[in-house]
Amino acid sequence: MTAAPAVPLRWTATVTALLLSCVLIGPARPAAEGAPAARGPELVQPPELVSEDGRLDVRLTVQEERVRLGARKVAALVYDGRFMPPTLRVRPGDRLDITLVNQASSATNLHTHGLHVSPEGHADNMAVRILPGEKWRYSYRFPEGQPPGTYWYHSHAHPQAEGQVFAGLAGAIVVEGLDRYLPPPLRGLPERLVALKDFQVRDGAIPTDNIDSNAPTTRTVNGLVNPTLRIRPGETQLWRLANMSANITYQVELPGTRFHVIAQDGNPLHRVWQRDRLLMPPASRYDVLVQGGPPGRTGLRTLAYTTGPAGDRYPQAVLATVVSEGAALPPARLPTLLAPFDDLRAAPVDRRRTVTFSQDKRKNRFFVNGREFDPERVDIRVRLGTTEEWTVRNDSDEEHAFHIHINPFQVISVNGRPYDARGRQDTVQLPVRGEVVIRTRFRDFVGVFPVHCHILNHEDRGMMANVEVVR
């Protein structure tokens, strides 16, 4: 396979907003509360491509295809003809090679979201631009210390990331190894990927431009409308919850059930969270343990949510029907402590910075430190091996999802109040007219990569900045 010549990709500003949040879920409860009116198809897991002997070699083709979503066929932009493409399963220390073939009519590229890999050359390089009819071979080498958990891959083609992700260019990556932190009775649990995507239809196609993120949108799980997810009473399952939408925030709830969160954004937690609700800004992921409740069916739903006076309003919607049925199992004892944690609160800080997100909503323009994104400009330069503290401010009347590539961070405080972080994350929701303080240790890799808002409409329209790590 040959590699197409790379052309610098001109991205726009956006500061990928990541997640800071709370989680929710618990045992399912009989019909009444939150029950959907009707069940959809059975929840189907995407096909999996699994590494063997330390290597996974994948070929993904970007295509403009008609796909079935719910009761209709719509034109979409997809990998390998699927709105929910293959899940890539790898292990720490593996090598992953992806040949991306572009059969679509616009340029694209690929980002391995959240993975701790090089941002240069043929790895997670956002400056690569794959033109129609070309192909590019990506190669990622994972460190032995790559945290296990749920990640994802998607287009990062600036300034068309919003439209390409919205139209279907997003799939899951699983790094194996969470089992080693669980007690022996909980190893090898049944797993369910719960990938959250939404779509709109305009003239028979999912739109890729002039997308109204505040318009009515159909929610899907693994590309299915209100699928049925089955669990036995008392059974423990591992759910990999991932918000793969281009713009929208989910507030997930399963009435009568709690989520026992064991990993956030692909990072195993030191202490397990238990929450009734999970706030999931775009790009966020949670690995959670869920135990089946009494026999019955309950709606896994997203609650009504607003992102602020200048933001969007999302109505409540059923995502899936959870059916608890079959022979009951005795509920397993769930862990409270999990992985070791290098707490940065006590770490020496080499430098402190302020990063401010702002916007001109009337002109639909968005800024980091008062400037729109310029792919040729380095906005923040840091030294390899140092620890920095950033005060990330939101100087606007809507929430933003702050996201950083390559190196996850620890949240230190939110609006001046200390935050009890249980681990690292790569996305955090910035409160309206508020601030979040984070600390990051820049380790292993040099090169240029972005920070941005992961509301991709904001990223494409300027809310992104380049970070360069130097020796």
Instruction: Tell how many strands the DSSP assignment holds.
Output: 33
* Number of helical elements: 2
State the CATH architecture of the largest domain.
Answer: Sandwich
User: What is the beta-strand fraction?
Assistant: 35-45%
The main β sheet shows up as:
6 strands, mixed
Please indicate the count of domains: 3
What is the overall silhouette? globular
The CATH topology annotation of the largest domain reads as Immunoglobulin-like
Give the class-level CATH name of the largest domain. Mainly Beta
The residue fraction in helices comes out at under 10%
Pfam families: Cu-oxidase, Cu-oxidase_2, Cu-oxidase_3
Protein name: Copper oxidase
GO molecular function: copper ion binding; oxidoreductase activity
Organism: Marinitenerispora sediminis
Short description:
GO terms for molecular function: copper ion binding; oxidoreductase activity. The chain is mainly β.
Task: Outline the structure in words.
Strand 28 and strand 29 form a beta hairpin. The model is unreliable at 1-35 (pLDDT under 50). The chain has three domains: 48-181, Immunoglobulin-like, CATH 2.60.40.420; 184-324, Cupredoxins -  blue copper proteins (Immunoglobulin-like); 344-470, Immunoglobulin-like (Sandwich), CATH 2.60.40.420. It has 471 residues and is mostly beta strands. The protein is built from two helices and 33 strands. Keywords: Metal-binding, Oxidoreductase. Residues 64-177, 214-291, 356-469 form the Plastocyanin-like domain. InterPro entries: Cu-oxidase-like_N, Cu-oxidase_2nd, Cu-oxidase_C, Cu-oxidase_fam, Cu_oxidase_Cu_BS, Cupredoxin.
